[in-house]
Amino acid sequence: MSILDELKYDDDDLVPAIVQDDENGAVLMMAWMNREACRRTLESGRVTFWSRSRQKYWIKGETSGHVQKVRSVAMDCDGDCLLIRVEQTGAACHEGYRSCFFRTISPDGATEENQDRLVNPDDVYGR
Q: In whole angstroms, what is the distance from residue 77 CA to residue 96 CA?
């Protein structure tokens, strides 16, 4: 039995994947993977996700050049979530930040950016 068979996918056959910087432990992003995306990630060493909005696979960095090289993959105790530690090149966030978690929420609900933007997303994605 493959580890891919042991994962507990949701009703859409997806599992959440949390991506963490192997160098400093920072959480960079969360995205979704199906069985094939998991297989591609394990075999290639490049993180591959399933885009729910576009209904297609995407390799992190294939457009932006901000690649994620897999250092390790772990699953949680229930088998319903992955933790992928990566060597991150550039911004992990499509908004141009190192991490997708670039906003801190205060107790009163206000938000504040906690990182500097590394790149202008318009320059990277041609928006």
A: 33
